[in-house]
Amino acid sequence: MKGLQIAIQSTALKNGLRVVVAPDNNAPVVTVGVYYKIGFRLEPKGRSGFAHLFEHMMFQGSANAPKMQHIKLINSSGGVLNGSTQYDVTNYYEAVPSNALERVLWLEADRMRALKVDDENLKNQRDVVKEEVRVNVLNQPYGGFPWLDMPPVAFRNWANSHNFYGDFADLDAANLVDVQEFFKTYYVPNNAVLLMLGDVKADEGIALAEKYFGNIPAGAAPPFGDPGEPEQKEERRGHVEEKFGTLPAMAIGYTMPARRTKDWCAMALLDQALHGGRAGRMHRELVLEKQIAVEADGGIDDIFGYNGPTQMTTRILHKPEISSEATLAAFDAVIGQVRENGVSADELEQLKVKWRSDYYATLEGGRGGYMPKYGLMHLLACFTLFDNEPQLVNSILDGFLAVTREEIQAVAKKYLVPEKRAIVFRTPVSADAKEAA
Amino acid sequence: MATRTVEILTGVPALAAERSVSWPKRTKAKLANGLEVVLAESHTIPKFHGELFFRSGNAAVSDRAPGLAEMTATMLRTGTTKRSSRQIEEDLRRLGAALSSSAGQDNSAIAFTGLSEFAAPLLELVNELARDAAFPEGEFERERRQKLEEVKLERTQPGFLAGERLRKVLFGAHPYAQVSPSEEQVAAYKKEELEKVYREFYTPENALLVMVGDFDSAAMMKTVEKVFGAWSGKKPPAKIAAQPANPRGRKVYLVNVPEAVQAQVLVGCHSITRKHPDWVKLGLTNSLYGGAFNSRLVMNIREDKGYTYSPRSGVHPLRELGFFSVSAAVRNDVVAASLTEIFYEMDKLRSVPVPEAELADAQNYVSGVFSMGLATQDGLLSQFSTVALYELPDDYLETYRAKVRAVKPADLLASARKYFDAANMQIVVVGNRAQIEEQAALFGDVEFYDNAGKRSAS
């Protein structure tokens, strides 16, 4: 087995900004990311969707780069940019020819230092976000299923259970005071990490970080809400109507063990056994063999990228002539199998090879074919913000490769139990489906 | 934005000197059986990416049934004469591999990626899928049912409905008009038809293998020869396709989805293929119009007016023909306003030369993004495949940036006039008819369709 070691240098500036550089001069391209440790989970109550709306505002203008200039400066340097709001982080990233590195750092520093936006910008982006929600959720078959449907069923703490994309009334209520307040509270250098990956030397990267970000004043340590959940002791169920699609669907989510425990590693391999594509037990049993379902997939979404309660979720679209109860029984039979028998030695060996291969792909992989090193950036950022240990990127694989058959069966028995799960049924309202029912 | 004053930035660092871009060396061969091979090394991770292409796709058999090549590709992994479906999936996992088989209009392909340490057994498996697929009866019935559900689901997606209608309008009797089969057509698929397509398409004379990754090219070439060398088979005869429709005058096609809460707008016309001498010029014109985040259209209808989240324009090259399209999912009450801006920005490019500075920005963008493909194995694979499949010159990648730099404002004006054929643009709108019909009708005579693709009375 050939190992893979990523060269990394990291430091922290006096204002608390963490800096991670991963040099690799293979291509004349550098990827820059700034991650803030705040996502939609801990956005203010009564302001659902605000963290994401705020992310849009970060492209609307800063002290020295007014509206349109962020996008224009990056594109006209030959680069691409984007941002995303996730559970526990919000990221901003650019990939540019490496001769534009200083320009990117200047821009990111400018918007970390001072956001400069007005009411017109806010109204404009509120409209854009509403169309985003429509195109991704409200006007699509199975839109938001299950990522928006599951939280209100599964969780009891508002932090975990609210609408992360935002109720339109909450988006309408958001004002400029909220924007500046959120910025002052969470967008401080001591709550962020700056990453540079690709065609940059380590010392040079750190010197440039100091040059552009060094004099941004630190802020107070952000007060974080408590994302903790009361212990779940009963199965939870919910129902959502499907407006466009004709197949009945369900999602079953089990609460995951805590991050970076032995159980967490074992669950990751178990997830691979259950949801690893066409070889995974769910797809094999429900789609290929019993032919109850048209789709049966899912799993742990972004295992390294969350820092609070989460689930392993199976998403099933089944044939209309099969009842929900029969589908759930078939699902339960797959779960029962791993609880009773675990996985074979040969299966575990396959799972580990695939896990290792997928991990390498994450390290190398871009995003949507246009953002080189997105995967490595994401892991380094999360390992820095959540674990204060970017070097984990070179060692974390070991824990997964050490998992035993006994451990897999043990976590199946401990976590895959009805009282630790939630089920969402998404049921078509269309005439077509009613006929078949 | 024309309506806003341009604010001057102070303190923006200048760009440093550009590092030269060098594409990895390609090792090429044509095996005795006709298989073309392109290999390139990229040692970023201990893995590799590959794709085995066949230069025939759905268009070549659309006279038999739409989507036949795609269904054939789907069946490959469900069993060979040596391995069952389950064995194939488990073997892939054992090799740390991922594989997909699919077909577009012009090509069929088996794409794969895996750990370098298991390259030979993965190639053996790919070889088996390409030569010894068994088309098991039970697997066929299941995959057909899966396909039926897939084509039903497509008809609930606004983006699909818009694209399907535009293709039918632009291409008419030409095979490129067929985007997807109907439920009835899928139900009528026969296993024997798929096996016939398989025998005709999946031959070494019709194939191209491209691989990029962590391997030694000379050693990999030997492995490729060993694995694929004994394969034989002729290239299928070329077919003459029917002439495409080429609709004159603007017309509106409204696909009614009563439950829709947003309108999907798609506007398009015929365009060129990648081999056309105007390709680079048109690419730049498109980038500046609506192909980039800071393009005129995105700045206008998203950043200035907030009508939409993701407006985009693109030139879509197929092997024989191309088409240009502009898409935006917009609020119901701004369908007319969005179309007005889409045409305004088009007409402006057709009448007013682009300022030098704006052209320079677009040149930087197009040439910079082109080089991003260098950074990953699959990015390289995609570029090398494009060159080989479209039979572009050997130095295409190396000379592309210089060609982009050579474009002048007059070229953009000429491209826009020639290819942004505003007077003959076809307009598709998918949404709730009651809320958008009056707005759509402002732009031309309207034909109405339902989500099954059937024309309904006005």
- Estimate the helix proportion of chain B, in percent: 40-55%
Please report the number of helical segments of chain A.
Answer: 17
Distance from N terminus to C terminus of chain A (CA atoms, Å) equals 53 Å
Uncertain segments of chain A are 433-437
Q: Strands across the major sheet of chain A, in which order?
A: 1-2-6-3-5-4
Anisotropy-based shape of chain B: globular
What fraction strand of chain A?
A: 15-25%
Question: What is the overall pLDDT average of chain B?
Answer: 95
Tell how many strands the DSSP assignment of chain B holds. 13
Task: Give helix and strand order of chain A, one letter per element, not per position.
Answer: EEEHHEEHHHHHHEHEEHHEEHHHHHEH
* End-to-end Cα distance of chain B: 39 Å
The number of helical elements of chain B comes to: 16
**CATH topology term of the largest domain in chain A:** Cytochrome Bc1 Complex, Chain A, domain 1
Detailed description of the structure:
- Chain A contains 17 helices and 11 strands.
- Chain A has helices spanning 50-57, 69-75, 101-113, 119-138, 150-154, 158-161, 168-173, 176-186, 202-213, 262-275, 281-289, 324-341, 345-364, 374-387, 392-401, 405-415, 431-436, and strands at 9-12, 18-23, 29-36, 80-85, 90-97, 192-198, 236-242, 249-255, 293-300, 311-318, 421-428.
- In chain A, the strands form 2 sheets. A 6-stranded mixed beta sheet of chain A has the order 1-2-6-3-5-4, sandwiched between helices. Chain A has a 5-stranded mixed beta sheet with strand order 7-11-8-10-9.
- The longest helix of chain A has 20 residues, at 119-138.
- By secondary structure, chain B is an alpha+beta fold.
- Chain B folds into 2 domains: 27-228, Cytochrome Bc1 Complex, Chain A, domain 1 (2-Layer Sandwich); 251-456, Cytochrome Bc1 Complex, Chain A, domain 1 (2-Layer Sandwich), CATH 3.30.830.
- In chain B, 42% of the residues lie in helices and 18% in strands.
- Chain B contains 16 helices and 13 strands.
- The chains are: A alpha+beta (437), B alpha+beta (458).
- Chains A and B meet through helix 2, strand 5, helix 3, helix 4 and helix 11 of A and helix 2, strand 5, helix 4, helix 10 and helix 12 of B.
